[in-house]
Amino acid sequence: MRHLAFESLASFLGRARVEIDRCKEARAYLAGCVLIGATLEFALHAMMRAFPRTVYRQGRRLKGYWSLKDLNDFAEQCGWFDAEGHEAAERIRKTRNLIHPAWYASRK
After folding, report:
1. With a threshold of 0.90, does the pTM exceed it?
2. For the CA atoms of the chain, what is the radius of gyration?
3. Are 80 and 24 in contact (CB under 8 A)?
4. What's the rounded Cα separation, in Å, for the pair 13 and 5?
5. Residue 58: Cβ within 10 Å count
6. Mean pLDDT, range 78-93, rounded to an integer
7. Assign residue 82 a region: left if phi > 0, alpha if psi is -120 to 50, beta otherwise?
8. C-alpha pair distances (Å), 71 with each of 23, 39, 65, 86, 104
């Protein structure tokens, strides 16, 4: 089962990489930021599904609401991210969150 989950994850990441490169070539940087954030979120959800015991050992549940902040913190807590990886994931999250209309409207 894990092998199948890894193949699915790798396939999605490969496809996302192609789309991210297209955003870069088209200078569609905002779209690229959204896609990078979505890709990170998908990858972390997929890791949780591939390794549910890790989730349960940390006293968490697979189902339920997980924000990208929750996912990033969890990934660091269980060792999927080191400090540098966590910082990068948080930069991705914060950049992606700049796009939310409510955040933008509140800044104006």
Report:
1. no
2. 15
3. no
4. 12
5. 11
6. 95
7. beta
8. 25, 12, 10, 10, 24
C-alpha to C-alpha distance for 91 and 101, rounded to whole angstroms:
19
The answer to whether 93 touches 69, Cβ cutoff 8 Å, is yes
Strands (E), the chain: none
Residue type, 38: A
Measured distance CA(27)–CA(105) in Å, rounded: 24
Residue 53 pLDDT level (bands cut at 50, 70, 90): very high
User: 5-9, 14-18, 22-26, 34-38: which has the minimum mean pLDDT?
Assistant: 5-9
pLDDT in tens, 28-45: 998 999 999 999 999 999
Side chain identity at residue 71, one-letter code: L
Question: Is 12 buried (19+), middle (13-18) or exposed (0-12) by CB count in 10 A?
Answer: middle
